[in-house]
Amino acid sequence: MSLLAFGLSAQLGAAAWAGPFTAVIDHTESSPALLRIERDHTQVNVLGGVLGDPFNPLRAGRDGGTPSTGIEINVLGGVVAAWSEHHAGVRVNVRSGTLETGASFGAGSSLSVHGGWVGGLPIAAGTLQPSVVIGAGARADVHGGSVDAGAQVWGELNVFGGSLGADPIGLPTGLAPFDVETRYQDSVRVRHGGVVNVYGGLIGQHLRADDGAEVNLFVLSASLDGAALGLGLGGTRTIDLRGGAALDVVLADGSRLGLVLDETGLPLIGPTGPVQAPDYVSSGALLTVTLVPAPGSAALLGMCGLLAARRRR
Asked: Cis peptide leading into 20, omega within 30 of 0?
């Protein structure tokens, strides 16, 4: 992780529960099935085996009534099976192993990805499924590892590193205007009310920002249709141009990101047929670019406070 991302994550990232935990469970291949975690101040360390199964998925935290408090799940190996549910008071840390397709995070829960894999085979009952669902009031931070295509964001997603929007089985992402409904995946879909802040990492093709969504890019440089934006340090520009405009940026960690800003979602047509669609960014979505210091610069620490303040409207 770059120094900038480290400084930002220190301010933006929700820290792991300090404890003390009243129950600590180490789950291995030989452990009995564990399908419910509701007891407050419980830590579960997934070291191997499978937690839950797609037909009887894990449910962590109380769904309704008094919210749970201080439940932590550390994925250090093994697998958390598809369709797991995480409610208020639950924090999931993925460092190795796999958090399978369709994991959902409700208000008051959080996900932190430092390694491993979030997603898996995205097809169930003949339709494409989201790699992960960040619900309204939930938060996810991606520092490393890989989050597959199809992530759905109603809450807050901060990307510092790793990859977002990887295509696990070679699906033709983004070839149709209605993505999941027409069996094509977006790298990430930001729903109404969702906020995505991108500081670094690799973002897959076909980002989708719906009406009422917010996408904030924190960059070292930026150009729109080949012309530099001319931002001063700490300056922010709202990007209103659509119609296929090309936004090219170097993110705060030095990674490059190019977006083709369109609001039709229609595929581009090549000599042999449809090719990759442009990114779908609704005219009703807020897209901003903020210029930040280069990693290691003297202005870095001072900028961290500014960027923290920009994470939400």
From this structure: yes
Joined tokens for residue 181: 């409904």
Q: What are phi and psi of 196, to 5 degrees?
A: -120, 125
Cα separation, 191 vs 299, in Å, equals 33
Residues in the chain: 313
Please state, in angstroms and rounded to a whole number, the distance separating the CA atoms of residues 198 and 44: 30
Q: Are 116 and 135 in contact (CB under 8 A)?
A: no
Q: How confident is the model at residue 213 (pLDDT cuts 50, 70, 90)?
A: very high
User: How many domains does one find in the chain?
Assistant: 1
Count CA atoms closer than 13 A to 51's CA, side-chain side: 30
Place 149 in a pLDDT band, splitting at 50, 70 and 90.
Answer: confident
Among the listed residues 14, 16, 12, the one whose alpha carbon sits nearest the alpha carbon of residue 197: 12
Q: What are phi and psi of 179, to 5 degrees?
A: 35, -105
Amino acid at 234: G
Q: Which domain holds residue 219?
A: 3-309
Averaged pLDDT for residues 209-234:
96
Element (H, E) at 307: helix 300-309
DSSP-assigned letter for residue 7: H
**pLDDT at site 200:** 97
- Containing 12, the helix (H) or strand (E) segment is helix 3-12
Q: Are 242 and 281 in contact (CB under 8 A)?
A: yes
- Of residues 91 and 130, more confidently modeled: 91
Single out the residue of 89, 82, 87, 75 nearest to residue 26, CA to CA.
Answer: 75
Distance CA 247, CA 308 (A): 23
What's the rounded Cα separation, in Å, for the pair 167 and 120? Answer: 9
State the Cα angle at 5 between 141 and 41, rounded to 5°.
40
Q: What is the DSSP letter of 294?
A: P
Q: Are 291 and 231 in contact (CB under 8 A)?
A: yes
Peptide bond into 122 cis (omega under 30): no
